[in-house]
Every structure is written in C-alpha cells, then in structure tokens.
TrEMBL record:
Belongs to the sigma-70 factor family. ECF subfamily. This is RNA polymerase sigma factor. InterPro entries: RNA_pol_sigma-70-like, RNA_pol_sigma-70_dom, RNA_pol_sigma70_r2, RNA_pol_sigma70_r4_t2, RNA_pol_sigma_r2, RNA_pol_sigma_r3/r4-like, WH-like_DNA-bd_sf. The keyword Acetylation does not apply. The lineage of its organism: Bacteria, Pseudomonadati, Bacteroidota, Sphingobacteriia, Sphingobacteriales. GO terms for molecular function: DNA binding; sigma factor activity. Pfam families: Sigma70_r2, Sigma70_r4_2. Residues 11-78 form the RNA polymerase sigma-70 region domain. Residues 105-155 form the RNA polymerase sigma factor 70 region 4 type domain.
Amino acid sequence: MASREEAFREIYEANSKKIFHLCYGYTGDDDAANDLLQETFLKVWQNLHKFRNQALVSTWIYRIAVNTCLTYLRSEKRQAKDELTPQIAENKREEFSEKNEQVALLYKCISKLEESERIIITLVLDEVPYPEIADVSGISEGNLRVKIYRIKQKLTELYNQHERL
C-alpha cells in the first residue's frame, strides 16, 4: 500500500504544475483550476491500478484532465463564465506585476480559443514534447505542427487586439 501512495506522490509532483496550467487555460480562474486539478488527481488515484503503461503516465493524466475540464465546461453555463472572466481578469490585474499581467492576458486570450486549440497551446507552453501532445490530442505530429502555427497566429491577433484597447 505504501508503494502505491509513493508512486502517486511522485506522479503528482511530476505533473501537478502542468495539469494546473492546463486547467487554468480552460477556466481562467485560479479557484476553478485548483478544483479541477484536485478532481483530476482524485481520478488518477482511483484509477491508478488500471494504468497499463501503454502510454506515458503524463499522457494518461493529461487525458483525464482534459476530460475533467470538458465535463466541467459542459456543466457550467457558458454565459456565466464569459461574464465572469473579464471581472476575474480585472481583479487579478490589481494583484499582478507587469510581467504577470502579460501572462494573465495571455491566458485570457487562450480562454477565447476553441477547446482543442486550448489543449494544444497549453501543452506547448508547458513544454510537453510534440509526440506526447499528438498522442493527447489524437492527431499526427505533422498536423500538430500546422495547428500550433495557426494557434500561435490566432493568439498573436487576440493579444494584439487587447494591447490596442
């Protein structure tokens, strides 16, 4: 039993920051991201015995996190999130330094992307290797590179629109 707990602790320590970033990319809210992080790792704990090493453990966890986030977004009223996001970003702005303000704006722009694009760009920002991102997103590595290029273009446009305001 102790070895299962130790394995879980190692998995958590190795993956929790990246999973938090993924969840934050979906929600744009620290509290919701923390809740989704906890829910993801609760599912990891409950299903650890089912993991068969057919993929990297991090890929398996990303899939759990993505499904958890998508379920959360479906259960949340989309309009309520859209109304809260600017308010949350405004409150956060007061707490952030200029650099952190730019990071907050980046995540605000990411939250405006399509769900599949949010998954991909968040994994890129967390420096997940392309083959693993391709696995998580279910597309070929070649197609992934094209998608990443287009997502970066879209993000640059969104970011520049905010900068002009």
